[in-house]
Design a protein that fits this description.
The structure holds 2 protein chains of 2 kinds.
Chain A: E1 2-11, E2 14-24, E3 29-33, H1 40-47, E4 55-60, E5 63-64, H2 70-74, E6 77-80, H3 92-98, H4 101-104, H5 110-122, H6 138-151, E7 156-160, H7 168-183, E8 188-192, H8 196-202, E9 205-210, E10 213-219, H9 220-223, H10 226-233, E11 238-242, E12 245-249
Parallel strand pairs in A: 3-8, 3-9, 6-7, 7-8
Antiparallel strand pairs in A: 1-2, 1-4, 4-5, 9-10, 11-12
Helix pairs in contact in A: 3-5, 3-6, 5-6
Chain B: H1 2-5, H2 12-15, H3 27-44, H4 62-96, H5 109-124, H6 129-153, H7 161-183, H8 187-194, H9 210-221, H10 223-230, H11 233-238, H12 243-265, H13 271-283, H14 287-311, H15 320-342
Helix pairs in contact in B: 3-14, 4-9, 4-12, 4-13, 4-14, 5-6, 5-7, 5-12, 6-12, 7-8, 9-12, 13-14, 13-15, 14-15
The chains are: A alpha/beta, B mainly alpha.
Chain lengths: 252, 344
């Protein structure tokens, strides 16, 4: 469970997060949606202690992220940002193995190696395991990063735009894998997603933001309505039921 | 996971046994390199004006024993210590600044040590090695910190510009050193101090170099942390690594090593830059694996340069820094051209 209590954050006088309070329950996939600059990524960064909040606090399973020692938190919560320009030349296996660092401190135990193999297999990276990251396509690299985060074995996994760089096939595959992480491995997955329909089809809960404030949060089915989407994105969006899913169509 | 095993069994063989074999540098490569280094090291014991052959080792007379223990062995140890530590210092610095072209020689660290030596000489006279070393270390730390501070404030899009800023900074510091040296009639001494040269290494006058071995061991123990920090701040925080502290410790290690080496034997241009680049080019950037090989290669690089320096104009010696500058410079240009083509 992630509890966010009246968190505010400003960049150079601009309030990016304005007194946001939110509880993300354990289990399932929660998607943060909102227009560009709504504060989704900032909220994710603050929740994962990549950014300090100006005020308010965030607790993960009761532990304050600002004061809990880094290694302790790293075993409970994993985060991947959107921009991952990495100049380091590692093989895919080495990268994924670094996900075990909070547990093993670099000396992999047999259990760690098993987890690395599992994460590689889960993301179908086996054949690429010994390639260097700079020899991969953007999509393959993105999968390797997510595999590393999964390998960290944390209850909470926070991902900022995990579909970045992925083509349609791999985007669908990624969302299925994340669904699997939530359903089979019982992880709590939090995503920043810009495509409303991805959020609608794959997540259990939606958190909608606008101009640094929380607009609404709740089960996906309750939030996928034309009224709410207009409020969040400032665009008329029709919502149609298609094969049991709610699909928003903004091009009307 | 059970759901996926059947469908993905095709990938399984790639994960096991043979397929895990590293491409690029393998264990036997390292073994061969170690053997070559040992051979070159023993050969270097017998290069010099004093007559000493391998056969003499069985029954050395007094003069030969003195040559061996006061000059040849200390010189070899100094070469191995300085070469390995300097290469590792470059490797660590390159990782922590996340730029392949940043090393103590391109970040101005070496020049700051030079200024420190002159300041120490002016304040304590020329005799105190410990004084020179302390002030040299202090100047190296301040100078490197200043460079890193500058980097954080400049928006530099091209990787090659970063070391240029460092070289520029080094040039300014070096100009100040020259000015001071000129005013106080130390120009020649500065030249001798700065140019890497092992001919002055004698028993009793190089022992402080053992400190760099300690620093290198610490760097190895922290290798994984440096790797993680090299992935970037958010990766580091995510993995529970205190980013700022690790970067500071790493840069401090690099600066201290540089200062001790420059004060003891002088500067060997490009060593900390070219060697880590060549090794990581072949082996990738996982520091735990790369660091020992970098240390060995650094030692070998200096050893070869030193043997060349001692034989090229036998019985006279050319400063090893000059040989290192020529060999390293050529390799550096090659690396630069390569980076341009690959758009690192």
């Amino acid at each position: 469970m992630i509890e966010i209590e009246s968190v505010s954050k400003s960049y150079g006088g601009v309030r990016v997060l304005d007194d946001v309070s939110l509880t993300i329950p354990t289990g399932g996939i929660t998607s943060l949606i909102g227009a560009n600059g709504a504060g989704k990524s900032t909220l994710l960064s603050v929740a994962s202690r990549l950014l300090p909040a100006d005020s308010g606090r965030v607790r993960v399973d009761g532990m304050d992220v600002a004061t809990t020692p880094g290694p302790v938190l790293a075993r409970r919560l994993a985060v991947l940002r959107q921009e991952n320009a990495m100049s380091v030349r590692l093989t895919v296996r080495e990268l994924v193995a670094f996900g075990r660092f909070p547990h093993s401190g670099g000396r992999l135990t047999r259990e760690d190696s098993r987890q690395v193999d599992e994460a590689l297999a889960w993301f179908e990276l086996g054949p690429l395991a010994d390639r260097h990251l700079d020899q991969l396509s953007g999509g393959q690299r993105q999968r390797a990063y997510v595999a590393m985060v999964m390998c960290q074995g944390t209850d909470h996994v926070l991902l900022d735009e995990p579909l970045n760089n992925l083509d349609m096939r791999h985007a669908v595959q990624m969302m299925r894998m994340l669904r699997g992480m939530a359903d089979e491995l019982e992880r709590t997955v939090v995503l920043v997603v810009h495509d409303v329909n991805v959020a609608s089809c794959y997540s259990d809960r939606i958190v909608a933001m606008r101009e640094g404030q929380l607009v609404a949060e709740g089960p996906t089915s309750e939030l996928m309505t034309p009224e709410l989407l207009r409020k969040v994105f400032d665009v008329e969006v029709e919502v149609h039921e298609l094969a049991g899913r709610r699909i928003g169509v903004p091009w009307s | 996971m059970t759901r996926t095993t059947g469908r993905r069994s095709g990938a399984a063989p790639a994960l096991s046994g043979q397929a895990r074999r590293r491409r690029g540098v393998q264990r036997w490569h390292v073994a061969v390199a170690l053997g070559a280094l040992a051979l070159a090291a023993s050969a270097s014991l017998f290069v010099g004006v004093g007559d000493l052959t391998p056969a003499d080792l069985l029954d050395p007379d007094e003069a030969q024993a003195r040559v061996l223990w006061t000059s040849r062995v200390p010189r070899l140890l100094a070469i191995l210590l300085a070469g390995s530590a300097m290469a590792v210092a470059g490797l660590v610095m390159m990782h922590l600044t996340r730029n392949r072209f940043v090393s103590p020689q391109t970040a101005g660290t070496t020049e700051w040590v030079g200024l420190g030596i002159v300041v120490a000489t002016l304040s304590f006279g020329g005799t105190s090695v410990l004084g020179k070393m302390t002030i040299g270390v202090a100047f190296a730390l301040v100078g490197t910190a200043f460079f890193v501070w500058l980097l954080q404030r400049l928006v530099l899009t091209d990787v090659v510009v970063v070391p240029l800023v460092g070289i520029l900074l080094g040039g300014v510091v070096s100009a100040v050193t020259t000015f001071l040296a000129y005013r106080f009639d130390l120009l020649q001494s500065v030249d001798v101090w700065m140019n890497g040269d092992f001919s002055g290494v004698l028993a009793g006058r190089y022992e402080l170099l053992w400190l760099v071995l300690a620093a290198t061991v610490v760097a190895y123990l922290w290798a994984d942390r440096f790797s993680v920090a090299g992935m970037g701040e958010s990766f580091a925080i995510n993995l529970g690594v205190p980013y700022t502290r690790v970067v500071m410790v790493g840069l401090a290690i690099s600066s201290i090593v540089t200062a001790i080496i420059v004060v003891s034997v002088g500067s060997i241009p490009f060593l900390g830059l070219v060697v880590p680049n060549l090794v990581t080019l072949a082996m990738g950037d996982n520091l735990r694996r790369v660091l020992p090989v970098t240390a060995l290669t650094g030692a070998a690089f200096v050893l070869v340069c030193d043997v060349l320096a001692r034989t090229i104009r036998y019985p006279y010696e050319v400063p090893v820094g000059m040989i290192g500058g020529v060999v390293g410079g050529v390799l550096f240009v090659w690396l630069l051209l390569r980076a341009r083509n690959r758009a690192l």
